[in-house]
Amino acid sequence: MKKDNQFIVKLSNPKNFAEWHDLEFAECPNGLLYGRFGVGPLRPEQSKLLMTTVRQTLLTDILCARVTGARIRNSSKHSRNIDGIQESIHEILHNLKTIQLKGDFEALAGQGPLVAILDVKGPQTAIAVDIELPCGIQVIDESHHIATITKPIYFYVELSIEIDSGESNRERPGTDEEGYSIDAIFRPIHQVDTSIYSYEYQGESFQTLFLEIWSERIIVEPFEALWKASLKILYLLTLVVKAKSVKSKEFEKGLHYGRFFLAPLTRAQCHWIETALRQALVQEISGEWNRETRVSDEGGDSRDPIFTPIPKVEITIESSEDVPFQSLYLDIWTDGQIDPKQALCQASAKIMELVSIFLQTDSTKEDYFQTRILQALEREQKHQPGPPGWDEGLSRDWVNHWEIARKSIISLNEDTLVLLKIVKTQDWFSKSIVDRNLQELKASLEKLKNIKNEGYTEHEQNILADYLVEEIKGSLENYEQAFKGYQASLNF
Questions:
Q1: pLDDT at 208 > cutoff 50
Q2: DSSP code, position 111
Q3: Contact (CB, 8 A) for 465 and 344
Q4: Where is the DNA-directed RNA polymerase insert domain (predicted)?
C-alpha cells in the first residue's frame, strides 16, 4: 500500500495531466500473470467512464486462438477408440483442446475457422510440431502430446482453429456431421478488478483508479492486454465518429434530433458502445457544460447552473440469426447548444482522450535506469582496493585470488554501466518518438473535440470529422510502430 500512497500523492495536483503507473507484477501459483496499475488524477465521472470502458474491453475483446473441431479419418462416431491408436477419441480431443497457440491474432481475426492438418504414419508419437498450421499461427509447446500410434497406420486429422475473444466461450462437446466439436474456452483475461481512491484537492473531488488484471500466461501479459484494449477502443471510436447519419430533424424550442447507423459490429462492440457512449454523452459532455458555464443570481453571486445539452440518448441493437454481426442505431436529442453530430464527435474524442492515457510511456522506466546505474556505481565503490596494510597476516595466494575476483567484478560492473547507458540512451530516443506520435494524436483529438466551436455546416462537419478520423488512424498506426520499437529497447 505504501507504493499506492506515493503514487496518489505524486498525482494529487489536478493541474498535472493524468498519467498511469505499473504498480505491481507477479506470477501466480495457478499459472496466471497478475498486474496492478494506477491512473490519476481523474474527475469522478472520468474515473467511472474509464473503469467501465477498459474493464469491459479487457474481458471481451482480447483475442486468442483455440482448436474448436476435429475430423479424424477412420474414426467412427459410434466407437470410443481407433484401432492402432493407444488413446481413446475422448483423450485425443482433450489433447487437441489443450494445445496452446500464439500468433498475430488481430491480423487473422474475422477470417472464419482456419484449417490445420495433422498427417503422420505410425508407429510413432504424434505431437504438436507435426501439425501443419495456417500461416501466422505457431504452437507454443512443440512437444505437446496428441496421440500414440502403435501400428503402421496413417493418422490424419483435420483441425478447425478459431480466433475469438472472451465473449465467445463455446461449450459444445460431442459430434456433428462435420466431425467432433471441442469445447473451446476463449479466456485470455481471467479477471479484472477495479478500485477507486477518492480525495479532495483545493475544494474539488478527484480520484485515482486502480486496475488489477489476471491474464493467461502464454497468451498475453497484463500490461500488453491493457495496451491492446486501449488501442481497440480508440480504433472502434474512429468508426463511431464516421457513423452514417440516416435521419435528422429540428423540433420546436430548439430541440435537435439525429439518428446514426453503424454496422457491422460484434456483440461485444455493440454492448461497449451502448455502455460507454451513452455515459460519455449524458455525463461527460453535460458535466463539461456545467463546469465551464457559470451564471449570476439576482444578488450578483456566481453560481453553477445545471445544463442538459443532451437530454436523451437511445441505442437500438439489431441482429439476425443468419448473420454473426449486429447493427446499431444511435438516437441523440440535443437542446440546440450543440447538434447531434457535434455531440457524437465530442463524446468520442473525450473517451479517446481519456483512454489514450494508457498509451503514455511509463515514467517509472526512468527511475529503473537511474536505480540500476546507482547500484552499479555502489558496487564499483565497494570493490575498490583496500587501504594500505589491509592484507597483513593473510596468505599471498588468498590475496591474489581476492584481487583477481575484485578486478573481475569491477570489469563486469564497468560493462554493465556501459550497457545501461547505451540502453538508456536508446530508450530515451525511442520514447521521444513515441511521445511525439502521441502528441500528434492528442492534437487531432483536440480538433475533433472542438468541432462544436467552429460554426461549420452539417456537411462541413462530416467532411472535417472524416478527415480527422483518418488523421487519428494515421497517428495511431505511427504510434504502434514507434511503441513496438520502444518496447524492444527495454528487452535487454
A1: yes
A2: S
A3: no
A4: 81-186
At residue 325, what is the residue type? F
Mind listing the pLDDT tens digit for each residue in 298-334? Answer: 444 433 444 578 888 999 999 877 777 899 999 999 9
DSSP 8-state secondary structure symbol assigned to residue 168: -
Q: What sign for the dihedral angle of Cα 241, 247, 248, 252?
A: negative
Of 435, 423, 428, the closest CA to residue 491 belongs to 423
**Topology match between the domains 2-62+189-293+304-360 and 64-181:** no
CATH of domain 2-62+189-293+304-360: 3.30.1360.10
Of 198, 221, 475, 240, the C-alpha closest to 343 is 240
The closest alpha carbon to 150, from 189, 115, 122, 111, belongs to 122
- E runs forming strands in 51-182: 64-72, 101-103, 114-121, 124-127, 131-132, 137-139, 145-149, 154-164, 174-176, 179-181
The residues spanned by each domain of the chain are: 2-62+189-293+304-360, 64-181, 361-387+395-492
Right CATH for 64-181 from 1.10.3210.10, 2.170.120.12, 2.40.50.140, 3.40.50.300: 2.170.120.12
Distance of alpha carbon 256 from alpha carbon 237, whole angstroms: 23
Least confident range from 10-14, 358-362, 432-436: namely 10-14
Helix, strand counts (H, E) of the chain: 11, 20
- pTM (2 d.p.): 0.77
For residue 137, list its beta bridge partners: 103
Alpha-carbon distance 303 to 300, whole Å? 9
Q: Is 297 helix (H, G, I), strand (E, B) or coil?
A: coil
| CA 255 – CA 335 distance, rounded (Å) | 5
Q: Which of 219, 216, 181, 178 is nearest to 97 (CA)?
A: 181
How far apart CA 331 and CA 353 sit, in angstroms, is 23
DSSP for 112-134 reads --EEEEEEEESSEEEEGGGEEPP
| Rounded Cα distance, 153 and 124, in Å | 10
- 27 and 194 in contact (C-beta within 8 Å)? no
Residue 277 per-residue DSSP state: H
| Range with top average pLDDT, 14-28, 197-211, 429-443 | 197-211
Q: How far is CA 248 from CA 57, 330, 334, 340, 349, in A?
A: 31, 12, 11, 9, 22
Residue 112 sits at φ, ψ, to 5 deg, of: 80, 180
Q: Could you tell me which residues come within 8 angstroms of residue 29 by beta carbon, excluding any fewer than 6 positions away?
A: none
Cis check: omega of the bond before 388, within 30 degrees of 0: no
DSSP 326-359: EEEEEEEEE-SSS-HHHHHHHHHHHHHHHHGGGG
Question: What is the SS3 assignment for 216?
Answer: strand
